[in-house]
Amino acid sequence: MRARRQPSLTLRATLAFSVVAMLAVASAGMYLYETMKGAVMTRSDHAVLARLDHFRKLLQYDLTLTTLQSSPQLFENMLDSEDDIFIIAEPGKPAVIMVNPLHAPLPEMPVVQANRPLSVADMRSGMLDSGVPMRAATVEAVSRGKTVHLTAAHIAVKEMATLAGFRNRILFAVALAFVLTAVLGYVLLRRGLRPLRRMASHAAAITPAQLDSRMDNRDTPVELQQLGEAYNAMLDRLADGYQRLTQFSADLAHEIRTPVGSLMGHCQVALRQPRTEDEYQALLASNLEELERISRMVESILFLARADEAQAALNRQTLDLADEMQRVTGYFEGLAEERDIALHTEGDARIEADPLLLRRALSNLVANAIRYADEGSVIDVRVVESARHCRIEVENQGPTLDDATLGKLFDRFYRGDASRHQSSDSNGLGLAIVAAIMQLHGGEVTVNQPTSGRICFGLVFPR
Ligand SMILES: Nc1ncnc2c1ncn2[C@@H]1O[C@H](COP(=O)(O)OP(=O)(O)OP(=O)(O)O)[C@@H](O)[C@H]1O
Ligand SMILES: [Mg+2]
Asked: Positive or negative CA dihedral for 67, 68, 70, 74?
């Protein structure tokens, strides 16, 4: 079943960025709006206070109520807007002057004494039915012995209109920030993620025949560079593995073709004319030998394939190496005697290993040593212990090999010239099996030539 398609990373990131940009612009706008509102209101408060102060002084010095009453233009042009309120009244009596075009209700207000200066704290807020705010104050004035109350109020219609305009601009800026960030973010992110898409199409084009193509990581951003490098490294490993597999199957076909070809050849020659019973027996015996070799090869290949594949479960046991060396050299004694070779064992240790596999690895080394050592020489099998390792060494006298050859000994199907000529039952798989066994144990197999003419293989087990 196909997985549900997740929203794209570009889309999600773009939306997130846009919301953040929108919030940032909105908060800045709100802050500016509040500051501006405060400033506008303070300004209008001061205008109201200045007006009250002005008329209080006028009344206290020379202006009489009657003059004021008879010439309304005196105060009308003092008012800030046509809706503003201005009232003069003697306490408890109807107003002498009453300007309140909108008939707005006034809030409850304290009366500021005539000798006291005015301040913003003396002002009160009110509200028209239409929701427009108002600021008002009342002061006392003494004009020719008469006490009068002056009330002034400002209705903030213009201010509210200005602020409403400002608010609309803020809303517009917020919307613009959202759209701009979304568009720019989308474009930039799509550009930034281009290497990912390139990688996907590169990966889609990879086939076994094209394992040598690599991603170009030069213009990839740092975050994706790691991915690109890991991807290329994976291709390196795949190409290497694939190349070895191809080589292996080519070698395998070649190795099996030769003995099968020779078997067929023997049979064809034999069938060309009638043969004696002895001849048939000899033919069958030689064919059997060849078939045994093929069977051994198949068994070895199967072992290597399983070791590669499953890291086959190891049956680890505590082993006494002196016993194990004794057992293996004892088994090869007869073969060694045939070539007049002596087997020496030395040392002892205990390790944790799979007994069957350890015996198989050690047998392969000892079999090689007997096969390739100079006739009449001595083979040393010994245990060397160090703090971190336990090493089983098999050393014999033999041909001097160059470094390139030493490196190839553990390759599957690699055989030295000597073995090609010497015997037909060499498959070149013995050391590959030893290497696989050591890998299963987390150790390794080493080879070196301590002096020319001596060759020493070591099975290194980690402690
Ligand atoms: N002790 C040794 N001294 C000298 N040469 C060696 C020794 N052991 C291995 N070699 C060389 O390494 C080659 C590879 O050895 P390996 O055991 O893998 O294969 P093989 O012995 O030829 O065949 P197989 O072990 O499969 O029967 C040998 O053909 C031989 O040339
Ligand atoms: Mg061998």
From this structure: positive
When pLDDT is averaged across residues 365-391 and rounded to a whole number, the result is 95
Query: Among 252, 256, 419, 434, which residue has the most ligand 1 atoms within 8 Å of its CB, making it the best to mutate?
Result: 419
- pLDDT at residue 170, as a whole number: 93
Contact 429, 412 (CB under 8 A): yes
Q: What's the rounded Cα separation, in Å, for the pair 39 and 30?
A: 14
* Distance of CA 428 from the midpoint of ligand 1 (Å): 6
Rounded Cα gap, residues 85 and 121, in angstroms = 19
Residue-level pLDDT at 424? 64
Q: CB under 8 Å to 232, separation ≥6 — which residues?
A: 214, 215, 217
Using one digit for the tens of pLDDT, what is the confidence trace for 220-241? 888 888 889 999 999 999 998 8
CA atoms within 13 A on the CB side of 26: 10
What is the 422 CA–ligand 2 centroid distance (Å)?
12
Helix axes 194-204, 222-271, angle to 10 degrees: 10
The two beta strands, 342-346 and 378-385, are: parallel
Nearest CA to ligand 1 atom 27: 426
Q: Could you tell me which residues are beta bridge partners of residue 350?
A: 320
Mean residue pLDDT of the chain comes to 89
Atom of ligand 1 nearest to the CA of 455: 3
Residues near ligand 1 (Cβ within 6 A): 364, 368-369, 372, 396, 398-399, 409, 414-416, 418-419, 426-432, 455
Q: Is the pLDDT of residue 257 over 70?
A: yes
Q: What pLDDT, on a 0 to 100 scale, did the predictor assign at position 310?
A: 53
Residue of 393, 22, 335 lying closest to 178 (CA atoms):
22
User: Which ligand gives the minimal distance to the CA of 457?
Assistant: 1
Distance 74 CA to ligand 2 centre (A): 126
Find the 364 Cα to ligand 2 centroid distance in Å.
6
Q: Classify strands 124-127 and 133-143 as parallel, antiparallel or unpaired.
A: antiparallel
pLDDT in tens, 418-462: 655 545 678 889 999 999 899 989 999 999 999 989 999 999 999
